[in-house]
Amino acid sequence: MTTNEIREAFLAYFARQGHLRIPSASLVPFEDDPSVLLTIAGMQPLKSYFMGADTPPRPRMTSSQKCFRTNDIDQVGHTARHLTFFEMLGNFSIGDYFKDDAIRFGWEVSTEVFGLDPERIWITVFEGMDGVPGDDEALEKWVELGVPRDRIQRLGEADNFWKAGPTGPCGPNTELYLDRGPSFGPEGGPAVGGDRYLEYWNLVFMQYERAADGTLSPLPAKNIDTGAGLERMAAILQDVPSVFETDGFRPLIAWAEQASGRRYGADGRDDRALRVLADHGRAMTFLASDGVVPGNEGRDYVLRRIVRRAVSEAGHLGLPPDAVVGLTGPVVDGWGDAYPELRDRAAEVRDVIGAEAEQFARTLTQGRRLLGEVIARSEGTVSGEDAFRLHDTFGFPLDLTLEAAQDAGLGVDAEGFERLMGEQRERSRAGGAADGASDLSERVALVARESAPAEFVGWDDTVADTRVTAMEELGDGTALLKLERSPFYAEGGGQVSDTGRIDGPDGGAVVVDVMRLGADQVLRVRLEQGHLPVGSEVTARVDGPRRRQTQANHTATHVLNWALRETLGQGVRQAGSYVGPDKLRFDFTHRGRVAPETLVEIERMVNGRVDEDQPVGWEITDRQAAADAGAIGLFEEKYGERVRVVSAGDFSQELCGGTHVSRTGEIGPFVITAEASTGAGSRRIEALTGTAAVAWLRDRERALLDEVAARDERIRELQSELKRAKTTRTDVGGLAEQAVTIGDVRALVAQVEAGDMDELLAIADRLKGTLGDGAAVVLGAASEGKALIVASLAPGAVAAGLSAGAVIREVAPVVGGGGGGKDAMARAGGKDPERLPDALAAARAILTAPRGA
Ligand code: SER
After folding, report:
1. CA 728, 734, 740: angle at the middle one, nearest 5?
2. Which of 221, 364, 707, 847 is the most exposed place for a label (fewest CB within 10 A)?
């Protein structure tokens, strides 16, 4: 059975059992479900039905749901089993049938629809825990269907109790396993673990809801949620060693083999790259077709990561970065029937992935340069800090650092790198913990409460003489610190936090983060020397160049917002933004793509406002006055009665808390680098300003020039190929037969085809060779509006009194030109190619005229 047939057989079976076939929901979960970044199971889009909050269209449903799990991303490629994206087949009952039917359906599908050998099927059931009894009911049902008791095992909470997340619907489950035989490991059933017993289906008896404190309460109804991974099912039914050998994945692997000339199965490292390309290629196509756009946060970051990893693995196979775009083809072909959105958005998906691949290629170039510097100054070993910084700040993969270091005869402190990665994971885990305040944020709140709110002076100043009002060391070389007056901007309204320095009489520190707590802020600093105790007088200094670039980008977003509304209509609403020193990103509501010529117009309008060098200023005013004056911004957000309005000239007024340049001219050149969709009805523009814009244009120019040079080279090759083809095409033997013999002379006059003089000479040479010592050859050709004539005489013909020079002098004027040469060889060019026959007739007359003895 092919993957498509398996999917269809499953859904058709359940449709026959009264289930409604529901299409897969998007990989992007509904807005009211913040518990996951991406859809992780078939039950996820149905959660509100399980909870009793909504009524399902039918109590019995079945689906093949697009799923994505991020927990094992790094494992993909290293094993033959891990996938990020997968399809989950499932059947669901909302308060309709329960254990009996669910188990019976599971058995029938396994043994009748899929034809698995009942002797090889093993079952696990829940053994029980505090408050939930062991599942004897399920066990007895399996026995009733004919499964021997010794192939049914009881397992605990980790294996046989399923929950959609820390909170929400959950319940005991029973799982179906296939025994793959003794060559895969020891006997003993799923309880012994290992590769021999492969789980292929999970039937969940969803009957509890778990609260944040861990307590279970019964759901309004008893439900069924089952999930079978389609890829694994295909591997089983097609009897292949791994999912990568199933019919679904083979075209993807074949594509990468073909593009790279490598073979799956020939080399372990290549195999890993091919598996990553197959998995990530499919995953990125599905993610992008559900509107995910590569970015730095959340699911956007997931997509960025997999595109980037695909690009570096493609690089390992010798493929250029944008080659990964080619992977979308076999995905659309293979899955487009089952998931039509793949076809609908194929072009857009290619754009999104191509843009990210290119951007990453630039990152790699920059990373390689930095890596070069790091290698140059490293002695013996590249430090873990350097490797981590390359990875963390520049997205430069450790693999590449390792390779380059090895080439330079250096080691890499991989342990140090791993330690820093671990710390970062800790930090993000702490920062991302959903339940309760994390340790760090609690400490930040405590530090904030120690003194009066910091006064933000960074709208006007980037340096401030001030005082430390609170401080707590965190023990990892960093500290939380509060200032009386702070020039440091805390991330907000899309603008990133400032970085900078704090220096006092007893010590100095680097500011690594600025945390916003309402109107107050706390800094995270890395102590460089000494200490900065509470009460010390310090100078706080924002990293100036970084801030200047950031605020140029921020003012540019306001001007862009104005230009968008002017061109696309006043209905355009800002839907999010990123404003950093590196670039700006602006999301806005708009249906359909923005036409390329409109983008050019928008870019031109922004640059026009920059040229005018209009003043940029701000004032604090009351909300009503701002609204009356026509200021735009997120009025519905929780702004106080007093609001800050930033204006640029008289054309833009926006509610905004960010920092800005003081004249539009400071923005410098503005260039739009990307335009894409971020989901239904919303678009995203990315742009650069100042030197970054110039560098980007230069890069593009260089790439274009390279491209032009490559094409020129190719044209030259083709021209000479063509010339060769023409020369050999001329039928020299046939022409030679037309020669007229007079005494010792063999005269031949003819018009032939030749592209230029060289070609004509080559033909004359070959004729001379054929005609022998008495050869007297005159050839004419018309090429590019000109007449070309060549006369070429062998020594015997010259000895007989003929002269090539004399012939040419005579006939050149006929074609409106001139020329000359020696006795043996002469040539001419003229501007009247249509008179060639006359000129050649004249030449023939000279060569064949009776000559005196
Ligand atoms: N929700 C369960 C799982 O993901 C069954 O579909 O395994």
Report:
1. 130
2. 707
